[in-house]
Specification:
The chain is mainly beta. Helices cover 10% and strands 27% of the residues. Bound molecules: 2-acetamido-2-deoxy-beta-D-glucopyranose (11 copies). Pfam families: Pectinesterase.
Length: 397
């Protein structure tokens, strides 16, 4: 009783935080000894802990908890502090929220944005989910991802070329959310080959206070996928934001561990299966920096391109983004020697870039340096063709 009271006060204090979900913070904070970790959680929240003696834990692996869920209905999974060596594969349609535990011991440090480019080292979460898969010849990129949100195996496939793997008449999760979880592909500490962290295809998903770490192809928003990432950190080297759907990155830190390809490699479509789509990568109010964990011998100054076109209909837009000196002054590069020209069907744009890499005077002529008026066409509601119902607008950052 006394404990609950103390906790209630604590939760109220946390409710005024800068950078947390007011809906979930009470559930997420680690509880004093003797109190259920589920105090403050939505009804029927499933608790996952690696501690086999924890009587509150229904599962000891996150994927086991996912597999226990019915196809429909909403579900919440609370994950205890720990490093989970597993691949998460969400095929179900029903809304699913994954919560990482937050520390009580460091109220001060969580009362700040998770993604702050000035933190050295950058912040980390208590919960880490990781695998060490990477792509060998003949494998599809999808099979290396740490987190898959896609309705079927074929729908998760990425394929190659301008349209990739065949279009699937399916849609998977309508509302996947993750809070305060670090997703890491630990295949190597260098770019070994494609080693994905996410593959979100034919699904709608959003992420809050998370991080995603790899070298090549860290983040993937697949076909007919819509994703939103806020107050999060993404680490990579080559094409580490890639996709064939619509992705909005808000207040993220893009941490260059080295430079290769482009930061973004996107595809668009003019096929009638996606009428009026605005497939593209949109990065707003964010920072591009040399990753504090980059190998000291790795040269990045002036070497990282903002993007390269995976197909000629690629769209990539940076809004109000700080760019450090890792950014290549010309900004953008052709895909490869087989496609040595960036076609004018590709849409590359920036608005109000700042920092030493944000000087746009040397950018390629094809790029659009947007006016304030033109930039108004790039908002969350406009690129998703509606105000997305699957984004948590209450998250504070
Ligand atoms: C992680 O999981 C992989 C695949 O199951 C396994 O091969 C590897 O040994 C595990 N590593 C650790 C450190 O647990
Ligand atoms: C970002 O981090 C720096 C250095 O750790 C700190 O001084 C600053 O207050 C932080 N910004 C915010 C908004 O918390
Ligand atoms: C994900 O789970 C589905 C359903 O069990 C399975 O068909 C698919 O192969 C899995 N995906 C991967 C990449 O393992
Ligand atoms: C997955 O794709 C393969 C190759 O295109 C095809 O042979 C197979 O029937 C598909 N499976 C399903 C369940 O659609
Ligand atoms: C990567 O570096 C970390 C920290 O130095 C080390 O613990 C880990 O074993 C390395 N991973 C690989 C795959 O070499
Ligand atoms: C669709 O895009 C492709 C690749 O840029 C182009 O060759 C084709 O003409 C376009 N089709 C239409 C109908 O605009
Ligand atoms: C994309 O998903 C929507 C549901 O969000 C569906 O209505 C539409 O048919 C899908 N389009 C394609 C090309 O799969
Ligand atoms: C840094 O890179 C050098 C040169 O490629 C390599 O020899 C060294 O092992 C790397 N260090 C770490 C910590 O990965
Ligand atoms: C793109 O280039 C083609 C051929 O070079 C030209 O006809 C067309 O007007 C250009 N389109 C735009 C939008 O600049
Ligand atoms: C931007 O770069 C150009 C060309 O190098 C230089 O002349 C100009 O002074 C720079 N602008 C700023 C604000 O640094
Ligand atoms: C997925 O999100 C898009 C964009 O907000 C929306 O148009 C679509 O209806 C959503 N799909 C489903 C199945 O909820």
């Amino acid at each position: 009783m006394l404990c609950s009271l103390v906790f209630f006060v604590l939760a109220n204090l946390l409710g005024s935080c800068l950078c947390l979900s007011p809906n979930f913070v009470a559930c997420q904070v680690q509880k004093p000894k003797g109190m259920s970790p589920l105090v403050g959680c939505p009804p029927e929240t499933i608790f996952v802990s690696q501690d086999v003696n924890d009587k509150h834990a229904r599962f000891h692996s996150v994927q086991d908890a996912v597999l226990s869920l019915p196809e429909l209905s909403s579900a919440t999974i609370l994950i205890a502090e720990g490093e989970y060596n597993e691949t998460i594969n969400v095929t179900r349609k029903g809304p699913l929220t994954m919560l990482g535990q937050l520390p009580t011991s460091a109220l001060d440090s969580i009362n700040r944005p998770f993604a702050n480019r000035s933190d050295v080292p950058l912040k980390q979460n208590l919960v880490k989910i990781w695998n060490n898969q990477f792509v060998h010849t003949g494998m599809d990129d999808a099979t290396s991802a740490v987190l898959l949100v896609a309705p079927s195996f074929n729908a998760s496939l990425i394929g190659a070329g301008p349209t990739g793997a065949p279009l699937q008449p399916l849609f998977g999760n309508t509302d996947f959310k993750a809070y305060n979880i670090d997703f890491e592909n630990r295949a190597a500490n260098f770019s070994i080959s494609q080693a994905l962290v996410t593959d979100i295809s034919y699904a709608n998903a959003s992420f809050y206070g998370c991080s995603f770490a790899s070298f090549q192809d860290t983040w993937y928003t697949g076909r007919n996928g819509s994703t939103y990432v806020v107050d999060s950190i993404i680490y990579g080297q080559t094409d580490y934001l890639f996709g064939f759907g619509t992705a909005w990155f808000q207040n993220v830190v893009l941490a260059n561990r080295a430079c290769g390809g482009g930061i973004v490699a996107w595809k668009g479509t003019n096929l009638t299966d996606a009428p009026g789509n605005r497939y593209g990568a949109y990065i707003a109010d964010s920072s591009i920096i040399r990753s504090p964990d980059a190998n000291a011998t790795t040269v990045t100054a002036g070497k990282c391109f903002l993007g390269r076109p995976w197909n000629d209909l690629a769209t990539t837009v940076y809004l109000r983004t700080f760019m450090d000196s890792t950014v290549q002054p010309v900004g953008w590069t052709p895909f490869d020697s087989a496609r040595p020209v960036i076609m004018n069907t590709t849409f590359y744009a920036e608005y109000d870039s700042t920092g030493p890499g944000g000087n746009t005077s040397m950018r390629i002529p094809l790029e659009h340096i947007l006016t304030k008026e033109q930039a108004k066409d790039f908002t969350i509601d406009k690129v998703f063709l509606e105000p997305p119902k699957w984004i948590d607008q209450t998250y504070l950052f």
